Amino acid sequence: MSLSEDPRSLLEDLISKAKTAGADGADAVHFESIGLAHAQRLGKPEKLEREESHDIGLRVMIGKRQAIVSSTDLSAESLGQLVERAVAMARVVPEDPYCGLAEESELARAFPDLDILDPEEPPAELLIERARACEEAARAVKGVTNSEGAEAGWSRAGITLVTSNGFVGSYARSSHSVGTSVVAGEGLGMESDYEFSTAVFGAELEDPEEVGRSAGERTVRRLGAQKPETERLPVVYDPRVSMGLLRHFAGAISGPAIARGTSFLKDRMGERVFAEGIAIIDDPHRPHGLGSKPFDAEGLANGKMNLVEDGVLQTWVMDLSSARQLGLKSTGHASRGTSSPPSPSTSNLYMAPGSVSRADLLGGIERGFYVTSMMGMGINGVTGDYSRGATGFRIEKGELTTPISEATVAGNLKDMFLNLTPADDLTFKYATNAPTLRIDGMTLAGN
User: Does residue 80 contact residue 58 with C-beta atoms inside 8 Å?
Assistant: First the structure.
């Protein structure tokens, strides 16, 4: 079976067999992917790989019990065994009072055209040229002394979902990427940095030479990095890392976390959790979006949704199970693989741009810290306590000056959200995006 073939009949047959074997309800999902990747280092090829894979998952329900079985073997014999195992497991697992398919009235019936599939598969020679141009441009930057390599890739994935209560849907998406990481300096004074670009369509990919040049310039600028003193000051997040704050927010409003009572925002629905004017949106229907999809993983209709309006929290992010636990309706955010039940996640999540330029955002800072990369996950989802390793630059009188490394930025996400100011420079580079963000009153720790 290939992406040109329709797996719907296979999934419908699985569900029919599951119901014949005793299942009250079932759904089945099929994933197929094709990928091509090239890597080189110092101008020499390190790999050129192509992969093709099929994966199928069957979920069956008997009363309030559910079981999920997956397989990469799509032979008739294997799929017959898959049904038998799933039904047998569903008879003996503990009950889950919140499992179950959607009501038929909730199912999506019309799917928008999101334009997320590039019909052209690039030849291997094009990927090789992208990686070559990217690495050469990075190495040509004065001060770059070594390379950690460059990669270029392409992939195409097809997803099909069929449920026993009448949903049938499928879509396909593509992705092109190019990036490199290089080293500057010598001995103990070496620094490294990277840059990359990802896009649905190859024509929308950033120029590989520009990507490489940016990686080289970022790296050289890090030479002479110092460990900072510990102090309290404004911290500004570069767009390359600012989206991490949105991910922490998305985790805090995830339905399962709210249902368990393990989120620092669990009692804040309808209250101000961000500064005035802040808007956070999730849009699964964004054309060419890296996280776009025409329906959710339970067959529900999805659509653009304001999670935060004027700083006020509007909704949780829910699938059917977590919505039932909370006595609410799903927000159409279910996602899933083939071997686990659906769970909620965002799609194209972004913070709307503010009204101040990046230059003006920095210009009002006498002394601060500009973050360009982060490491570690010192986040307490229950309390909101936040502490992460960071590198970046000292801000002095509105300008970036001394490079900083071996630093830690700390605060509490509840306070950070309320003291956050976005710049007007939002660009859509990832599935989660935010503009440059300034947060006053954080702790920078070093020596």
Answer: no
What is the crossing angle of helices 208-221 and 124-139, to 10°?
30
- Could you give the domains of the chain? 8-219 (3.30.2290.10), 225-447 (no CATH)
- 439: Cβ–Cβ under 8 A, 6 or more apart, which residues? 234, 235, 236, 237, 411, 416, 419, 420, 421
pLDDT tens-digit series, residues 394-427: 999 999 999 999 999 999 999 999 999 999 999 9
H/E/C letters for each residue in 66-103?
Answer: EEEEEECCCCHHHHHHHHHHHHHHHHHCCCCCCCCCCC
d(CA 33, CA 53): 5
Asked if 366 contacts 344 with a C-beta cutoff of 8 angstroms, the reply is no
Place of tokens 């019990």: 65
Is the pLDDT at 5 greater than 70? The verdict is no
Closest CA to 416 of 301, 323, 278, 266: 278
List of long-range contacts for 39-47, beta carbons under 8 Å, 24+ apart = 39/131, 39/149, 39/150, 39/151, 40/128, 40/131, 40/132, 40/135, 40/149, 40/150, 40/151, 41/135, 41/147, 41/148, 41/149, 41/150, 42/135, 42/146, 42/147, 43/132, 43/135, 43/136, 45/128, 46/149
What H or E segment, with its residue span, contains residue 392?
Answer: strand 385-396
pLDDT at 376 over 90: no
* Both structure tokens of 438: 């300034």
Give me the helices (H) in 269-377, please: 320-326, 358-363
Over residues 23-40, the pLDDT tens digits come to 999 999 999 999 999 999
Best CA proximity match to 438, nearest among 422, 414, 415, 417: 422
Q: What is the pTM of this model?
A: 0.94
Residue with token string 């309390």: 383
Both tokens assigned to 336: 């899933």
Identify whether the C-beta of residue 162 lies closer than 8 Å to the C-beta of residue 71: no
Helical (H) or strand (E) element with 173: strand 168-184
- Give the tens place of pLDDT for each residue, 75-107: 999 999 999 999 999 999 999 999 999 999 999
- According to the model, what pLDDT value does residue 1 have? 44
Instruction: Tell me: pLDDT of 328 over 80.
Output: yes
